[in-house]
Automatic annotation (TrEMBL):
This is Sec23/Sec24 helical domain-containing protein. Its main location: membrane. It is found in: Endomembrane system. InterPro entries: Beta-sandwich_Sec23_24, Gelsolin-like_dom, Gelsolin-like_dom_sf, Sec23/24_helical_dom, Sec23/24_helical_dom_sf, SEC23_SEC24_subfamily. It comes from the Eukaryota.
Length: 277
């Protein structure tokens, strides 16, 4: 798309697209999207308004197409170049700023991190054995998932759930939903004394530390201790205690926001499936 007209005399521009499609019930529909954006004269204003999540998801979709039409290596190189080019352009524009190890606009401060996370997805990862079916499935998810769900796949949310309380909880349909703080996605945040839930969009992982409190194991998982928990556990029992109610309420709240119910998988500290987590 190109614009040949002079925009100096206007403060807003509007983009509009129309999609003609057939619904699952055979109905012909038209969906119209309209986006209004301000016209600015400074490149710094453009950077300030950048939507890093929208940029990431667009690049992920383009990388899938590049993988199919060219090669996986070319797709990865294109993603790397997108980060390098955007930050290089910003550095040349913001040459008056104090130099540091990484100069990036506030809106794009997570851009390199998100690209690194994208490289670890089955669709684009290298150096790790990946079945072709798994890679194609991951690519299809990138092409079909809406932005909110795709961001969960690329950069999941991590919570510690063995110490849930009602402090800061929200009320949803007469149900109290705990709100544990988000943890940084780093292995150093995992402790063997805790239990952590990672929301990956299509799947929910519960990582159980070897030294996790037996009260949590018994009240939430329904087993007397860590050693008695089976390797393949995919659901939580409904137990009559406050810890079980809080945990299930939080998981239900997470799943209610998704179009499809995610799969739940409990992973023990020494489990072979730990690499998936």
């Amino acid at each position: 798309m190109s614009i040949e007209e002079n925009l100096t005399d206007t403060s807003l521009v509007c983009f509009q697209t129309a999609l003609l499609y057939t619904s699952s019930k055979g109905e012909r529909r038209i969906r119209v999207h309209t986006l209004c954006l301000p016209v600015v004269t400074s490149l710094m204003d453009v950077y300030a308004g950048a939507d890093v999540q929208a940029i990431l998801c667009l690049l992920a979709n383009m990388a899938v197409d590049r993988s199919v039409s060219s090669s996986l290596s070319d797709a990865r190189d294109a993603l790397t170049n997108a980060v390098v080019d955007s930050l290089s352009a910003y550095m040349s524009t913001a040459s008056n700023l104090q130099q540091s190890s990484l100069i990036a606009p506030y809106s794009l401060r997570l851009f390199p991190l998100y690209i690194l996370a994208l490289f670890k997805q089955k669709a684009f990862r290298t150096g790790t054995s990946t079945r072709l079916d798994d890679r194609i499935y991951a690519m299809c998810q990138i092409k079909s998932q809406p932005l909110v769900h795709l961001m969960k796949i690329i950069y999941p949310s991590l919570y510690r759930i063995d110490k849930l309380t009602d402090e800061g909880a929200i009320h949803v349909n007469d149900r109290v939903v705990p709100q544990p703080p988000l943890q940084r996605l780093s292995a150093e945040k995992l402790t063997r004394e805790g239990a952590f839930l990672m929301d990956c969009g299509l799947i929910l992982y519960i990582w159980l530390g070897r030294s996790c409190d037996n009260n949590f194991v018994k009240d939430v998982l329904g087993y007397p201790n860590y050693l008695s928990v089976p390797q393949k556990l995919t659901q939580l029992p409904e137990l009559d205690n406050i810890s079980s109610e809080r945990t299930r309420s939080f998981i239900t709240w997470l799943t209610d926001s998704k179009s499809l119910n995610p799969v739940l998988q409990v992973i023990k500290d020494e489990s072979p499936a730990k690499t998936d987590f």
